[in-house]
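Help needed: design a sequence for this.
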């Protein structure tokens, strides 16, 4: 049955081809199929007479050394690479993607195919009986997205739940897997778009669509989900290695209202010996919410504040919102207007909207000129020694306009193309983060920047980490954060995390204990809470919870060498930091359904306690390894559920057999002392290996060889040490071996 709204692309009328591209003139549009590499094929289709400029914010790599492809034209047309065969039929045009051995991975739905519905473009695709979907960026709901449908339109929804599809971030990248067939589709269209992943009557097709623009997607084939994700990040880029301190614990609140309050929080951490590296200034540090200013009464001497904090081992991160107070006596506004940096209405007058500062103007971050200008405004903050920047409200949120954002007719430069808000909306936050990132790189070229953003589009991993916006202090939101961050991690954004303890509402002592235990194993580890809620620092919930938080935050610091290894992998080839079980154990069928546990790196299995009152929980141990209980050191076979004891002070945590965890003695902040001893905690298996990646932790010298990688192998009670690279002079003089946590 054809889709009633859909005008199909129709039959092929003409075919042209080069080595790696085939172009079709069809009854109702043009289609271009290009092999970018052996396993990446791009499909573009337009209902216009010809294609528009080839432009994408998401795509980082535009030059592909000519993929070796063979084109055959006949009754059908085939475009074949070493790994993929694309077969296109003529009447009507339908595209099928098969692996080299002929297995069909995915195809246009035979009845519907691709086409148009007014300005809308859509692709209907076959859905296999056992197909599962992952990725899709920052989404609520279960890990496997099969049977779900949701839109992509960046939305500030502070009361979102499982049922809200559109939240802060849009990453229209789909990962599909079933036994023996893996592929990904990146649907690169920045208009509002929509995925229906089999939420249809026949359950035999799914569809992807966008409100307007070309149908433009990339098909990634691979032998595994790993290949698919790596293919996607080859196209859209990878994260840089953040400064080492960014892996530490971070404390935030809306807001610490004065420098004194910030210092008091800092002193509490040190007095109580709770490790912490980063404190935040939320919006109240500013003068009337004017970005790039400080409140002269409450933060009179920011340089001194930052210096004092640094002496105590803290970095300070300041928030920057996109709304610039519409106040002609204020330099950012004045200069921005003079130079024409802000968005205008179609009639040429300034577009204004209300956010924290009252009436605001908004920079057009889709202009290179504006990004450069905005980046430079971070100069004073950088010179003061601020550790990094937090970008908020960049969906953009605008309170006094329908839909909580800008009207659709606002013109944006879109790097020379002049489009409206409809097309620019989903890349507003992305380009704000990019402006900030590029500014920070220019202003402090020797330091790795640290940025966190709320809104984003595909490819944002090149510029910023993502925190998942406003959640609640609730068990539901705590549970939701696991699949949400796992799917973000599969969507290129390995560095991510939620507000630990929950943002809205009052956190309870039990929830804070449980969430801090789990948060210690998320890539981004920050406790944050909203104005008017109960204070949420670890010591606000009595001595028992304080001790639990101290213990787990300390454990994270002890494990920092392991974490740093895993971050390095993410920067190197986009391997997620936080991994679904199937990333490591694709043959364990049950693992695909587990979304209340995760792996941190290759070796640690984390099973957070997600229910109030629980004192134990069932933990699925993936088949394919044996598992040691981190606390009792008891060994279990994989491929079974075990019941783990979970009194309030215990997070069920398991170590994969054959792992060596590189650790250190506890520290209170990352730069507290030079680490000259590494503890190697051995969990024996058939083959037992571990690594230690080292560099200076703050500069980009690692990119030009200043890093070292050491491999450890444990066999027959002996440790073998092998230097794989040694461009960085490590201070480590001693390796202390533990076996199952015990001194040898
Ligand atoms: O309208 O800056 O998600 O983390 O504390 C609320 C105040 C604006 C929303 C962010 C939140 C932050 C808050 N901001």
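Sure. Designed sequence:
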């Amino acid at each position: 049955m054809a889709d009633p709204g859909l005008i199909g692309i129709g039959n092929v009328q003409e075919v042209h081809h080069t080595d790696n591209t085939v172009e079709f003139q069809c009854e109702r549009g043009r289609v271009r199929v290009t092999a970018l590499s052996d396993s990446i094929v791009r499909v573009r289709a337009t209902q216009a007479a010809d294609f528009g400029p080839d432009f994408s914010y998401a795509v980082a790599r535009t030059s592909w050394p000519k993929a070796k492809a063979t084109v055959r034209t006949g009754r059908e047309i085939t475009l074949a690479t070493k790994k993929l065969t694309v077969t296109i039929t003529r009447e009507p045009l339908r595209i099928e993607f098969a692996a080299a051995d002929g297995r069909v991975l995915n195809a246009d739905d035979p009845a519907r195919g691709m086409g148009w519905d007014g300005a809308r473009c859509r692709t209907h695709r076959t859905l296999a009986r056992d197909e599962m979907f992952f990725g899709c960026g920052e989404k609520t709901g279960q890990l496997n997205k099969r049977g779900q449908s949701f839109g992509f339109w960046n939305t500030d929804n502070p009361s979102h739940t499982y049922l809200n599809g559109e939240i802060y971030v849009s990453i229209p990248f789909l990962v599909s897997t079933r036994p023996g067939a893996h592929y990904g589709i990146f649907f690169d269209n920045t208009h509002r778009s929509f995925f229906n992943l089999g939420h249809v009557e026949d359950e035999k097709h799914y569809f992807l669509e966008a409100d307007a623009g070309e149908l433009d997607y990339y098909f990634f084939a691979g032998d595994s989900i790993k290949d698919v994700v790596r293919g996607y990040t080859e196209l859209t880029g990878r994260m840089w290695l953040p400064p080492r301190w960014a892996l530490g614990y971070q404390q935030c609140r809306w807001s610490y209202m004065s420098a004194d309050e910030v210092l008091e929080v800092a002193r509490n951490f040190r007095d109580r010996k709770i490790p912490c590296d980063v404190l935040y200034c939320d919006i109240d540090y500013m003068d009337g919410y004017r970005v790039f200013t400080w409140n002269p009464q409450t933060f009179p001497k920011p340089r001194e504040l930052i210096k004092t904090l640094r002496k105590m081992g803290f970095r300070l991160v300041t928030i920057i919102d996109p709304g610039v107070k519409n106040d002609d006596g204020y330099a950012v506004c004045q200069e921005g207007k003079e130079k024409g940096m802000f968005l205008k209405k179609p009639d040429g007058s300034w577009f204004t909207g209300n956010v924290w500062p009252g009436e605001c103007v908004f920079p057009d971050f889709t202009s290179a000129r504006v990004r450069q200008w905005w980046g430079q405004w971070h100069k004073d903050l950088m010179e003061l020694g601020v550790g990094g920047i937090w970008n908020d409200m960049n969906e953009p949120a605008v309170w006094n306009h329908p839909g909580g954002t800008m009207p659709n007719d606002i013109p944006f430069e879109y790097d020379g193309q002049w489009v409206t808000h409809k097309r620019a909306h989903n890349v507003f936050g992305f380009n704000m983060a990019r402006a900030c990132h590029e500014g920070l790189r220019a202003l402090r070229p020797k330091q790795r920047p640290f940025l966190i953003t709320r809104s984003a589009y595909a490819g944002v991993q090149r510029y910023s980490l993502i925190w998942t916006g406003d959640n609640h202090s609730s068990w539901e939101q705590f549970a939701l954060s696991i699949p949400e961050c796992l799917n973000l991690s599969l969507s290129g954004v390995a560095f991510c995390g939620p507000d630990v303890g929950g943002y809205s509402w009052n956190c309870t002592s039990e929830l804070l204990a449980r969430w801090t235990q789990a948060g210690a194993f998320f890539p981004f580890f920050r406790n944050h809470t909203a104005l008017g809620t109960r204070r949420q620092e670890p010591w606000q919930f009595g001595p028992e919870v304080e001790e639990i938080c101290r213990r787990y935050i300390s454990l994270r610091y002890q494990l920092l060498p392991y974490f740093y290894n895993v971050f390095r992998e993410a920067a190197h080839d986009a391997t997620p930091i936080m991994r679904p079980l199937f990333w490591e154990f694709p043959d364990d069928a049950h693992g695909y359904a587990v979304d209340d546990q995760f792996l941190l790196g290759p070796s640690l299995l984390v099973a957070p306690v997600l229910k109030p009152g629980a004192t134990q929980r069932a933990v699925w141990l993936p088949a394919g390894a044996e598992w040691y209980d981190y606390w009792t050191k008891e060994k279990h076979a994989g491929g079974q559920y075990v019941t783990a004891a979970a009194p309030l002070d215990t997070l069920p945590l398991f170590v994969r057999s054959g792992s060596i965890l590189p650790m250190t003695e506890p520290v209170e902040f990352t730069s507290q002392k030079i680490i000259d001893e590494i503890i190697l905690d051995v969990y024996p298996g058939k083959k037992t290996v571990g690594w230690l990646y080292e560099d200076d932790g703050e500069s980009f010298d690692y990119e030009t060889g200043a890093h070292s990688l050491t491999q450890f192998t444990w066999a027959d009670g002996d440790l073998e040490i092998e230097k794989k690279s040694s461009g960085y002079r490590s201070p480590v003089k001693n390796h202390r071996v533990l076996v199952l946590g015990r001194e040898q």
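The two ends are 70 Å apart (CA to CA).
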